[in-house]
Specification:
Number of strands of chain A: 11
Helix content of chain A: 10-25%
Number of helices of chain B: 16
CATH topology of the largest domain in chain B: Cytochrome Bc1 Complex, Chain C
Strand content of chain A: 25-35%
Largest interface: A-B, 17 and 22 residues
Radius of gyration of chain A: 35 Å
CATH superfamily of the largest domain in chain B: Cytochrome Bc1 Complex, Chain C
Largest sheet of chain B: 2 strands, antiparallel
Oligomer: heterodimer
Shape of chain A: elongated
CATH class of the largest domain in chain A: Mainly Beta
Radius of gyration of chain B: 23 Å
Strand order of the largest sheet of chain A: 2-11-10-5-4-3
Structural class of chain B: mainly alpha
Shape of chain B: globular
Number of helices of chain A: 2
Order of helices and strands of chain A: EHHEEEEEEEEEE
CATH architecture of the largest domain in chain A: 3-layer Sandwich
Distance between the termini of chain A: 70 Å
Structural class of chain A: alpha+beta
Number of domains of chain B: 2
Strand content of chain B: under 5%
CATH topology of the largest domain in chain A: Rieske Iron-sulfur Protein
CATH superfamily of the largest domain in chain A: Rieske [2Fe-2S] iron-sulphur domain
């Protein structure tokens, strides 16, 4: 079945008046058809195995940083050493897992912590002490600096609040 | 409209604009000669396949590699932190070596089949240029991990252009980016390896492949001597293509086996103050020229020996490159025989110096 047709020389000279009849192909036996089908199926399966054996390592390789970030987001608690010394009316930016977060020490002494990722399109927001609000410079979203509620602009959802515990050594921030 | 007529009209639309049917007709009529030496026809295709592997794995390494001062750390990360990073790096290194090997086999088979003769001189010249570029690819890529071995290999390798009279030291400093191998060297080797070399290599490879389509496979003189009726050939589509792809599959299997069973190692980070590690030696494909220079240096000691060595070596390469313009007659005559013996001498010299090289480092 797989033998190659051999072409000999460049031209074939036939005696004049010769008619070439196409050779009638013998119909395949039912057994041959099954063998051929089986062969094609086996070749297809082997091809799929190869594709998977190539694609899997490549996918895992490219996805490595994503998996590392996933491990980082599994973090439930962050201890910020010496953060209790943060003066009132100021903010500390820190990483909670893989994403940026805010720790605000308000003028009235309250400690508030929340994620710093805008719920609109993911920009990092900033605390504005003079207006006592949280503002996103990308599209003008505004959040409440105590509750994280979305006050105006495009943000669809509030910022997620964290639990804050202040002690002598630092500030512990954990998932609420 | 049925699906079939839709497909047909889409084909016709594209064909009218791109001339697909001409290509299809060309492919249908292309044949490949069959004879006792047909096996050697696969090695150009194998080299091409391994080059494609280099492009693919190279782009994957590029995703995490950082040249400059962080080079070693980023390769360490690829090898030990990223999933399957060791495998991709190992495949890139193994495939580089296999590619150089198959290009050499391809070159010698072309040489001994005398496939460089008219009208294939440009095929030979472009092929030699591609081999030269492939070895620069190898040399520049070897430095990129910045481990002990790559540091000293590059240090030694760049001493060779440094002995060229007058301009040598300037050339070496220019390549190194300073008087010593440093993060500047790795940064410029990186630019060379991933931008400059591919930009030259790819069009040249396109030219080389176009010439193969234009002139077809050369047949060795023993076949050429036969009358046309006695020469055999098979259609390229699908018969030869099928065999070619089978060779690619075999190459892929061998590569996968080597890359996973013998993962490429990463040495310690280079340290400019540390002594060279024991048993350090060039890559196998640089062993022969390195050893030739060493042998000539021991015959003619001192700077004169080094210069004479480089001159003699350059002369040999120039003669090798110019062979299509020396061995021009189709009938086997004195020149054809001389070219044949020159080829045998080259193979013998390559093998002997490689063996001596490995023997003396033990």
């Amino acid at each position: 079945m797989m033998s190659d047709p051999i072409v000999t020389g460049g031209h074939i000279h036939l005696p004049e008046g010769t008619h070439l009849e196409p050779v009638a192909q013998e119909p395949l036996e039912p057994g041959e058809i099954t063998t051929r089908r089986f062969f094609l199926a086996a070749a297809g399966a082997a091809g799929l195995c190869y594709a998977a054996a190539l694609a899997y390592p490549v996918y895992r390789y490219l996805a490595s940083p994503e998996e590392m970030a996933m491990e980082a987001t599994a973090v439930t608690e962050v201890t910020l050493k010496d953060a209790q010394k943060l003066p009132a009316g100021s903010v500390l930016m820190f990483k909670f897992g893989a994403a940026p977060a805010l720790l605000i020490h308000h003028e009235d002494g309250r400690w508030i912590s929340m994620t710093a990722v805008c719920t609109h399109l993911g920009c990092t927001v900033q605390y504005e002490p003079q207006a006592d609000r949280i503002h996103c410079a990308c599209h003008g979203g505004v959040y409440n600096a105590y509750t994280g509620a979305n006050v105006s602009g495009p943000p669809p959802r509030p910022l997620t609040l964290f639990k804050v515990a202040v002690n002598q050594a630092g500030v512990e921030v954990s998932r609420a | 409209m049925t699906t079939k007529t839709q497909t047909n009209s889409l084909y016709n639309w594209t064909d009218e604009r791109l001339g697909l049917s001409e290509l299809a007709a060309f492919a249908r009529h292309k044949t490949v000669p069959v004879h006792a030496q047909s096996f050697w026809y696969y090695w150009g295709g194998i080299s091409l396949f391994l080059f494609l592997v280099q492009c693919f794995t190279g782009v994957l390494l590029l995703v995490y590699y950082r040249p400059g001062a962080e080079a070693y750390e980023s390769v360490r990360q690829i090898t030990f932190v990223m999933h399957f990073g060791w495998l991709i790096r190992s495949a890139h290194a193994w495939s580089a070596n296999l590619m150089i090997f198959s290009i050499l086999v391809h070159m010698f088979s072309v040489y001994f089949m005398k496939a460089y003769r008219k009208p294939r001189e440009f095929g030979w010249l472009s092929g030699m240029a591609l081999l030269g570029l492939a070895s620069v690819f190898g040399f520049s890529g070897y430095l990129l991990p910045m481990d002990e071995l790559s540091y000293f290999a590059t240090k030694v390798g760049l001493q060779i252009p440094a002995v060229i009279p007058f301009v040598g030291p300037a050339i070496a400093n220019m390549l190194r980016g300073g008087p010593d191998v440093s993060e500047f060297t790795v940064q410029r080797f990186f630019a060379l390896h991933v931008v400059v070399l591919p930009a030259i290599f790819l069009p040249l490879l396109g030219f080389h492949l176009w010439l193969v389509q234009r002139h077809g496979n050369a047949v060795p003189p023993s076949e050429e001597a036969k009358p046309p009726q006695e020469r055999k050939s098979i259609p390229f589509m699908p018969n030869f293509l099928r065999k070619d792809l089978a060779m690619w599959l075999i190459s892929l299997n061998i590569l996968a086996l080597l890359a996973s069973v013998f993962p490429w190692s990463l040495g310690r980070q280079f340290d400019a103050l540390a002594p060279a590690p024991a048993g350090i030696h060039p890559e196998w494909y640089f062993m022969s020229p390195f050893e030739m220079l060493k042998l000539l240096g021991s015959v003619l000691p001192g700077e004169a020996g080094e210069i004479a060595g480089i001159l003699l070596f350059t002369l040999g390469i120039v003669l090798w490159i110019l062979i299509p313009f020396y061995d021009i007659r189709k009938e086997s005559g004195q020149r054809a025989r001389a070219a044949h013996y020159f080829g045998l001498l080259a193979v013998f010299a390559l093998l002997a110096t490689t063996v001596i090289g490995y023997w003396t480092i033990r």
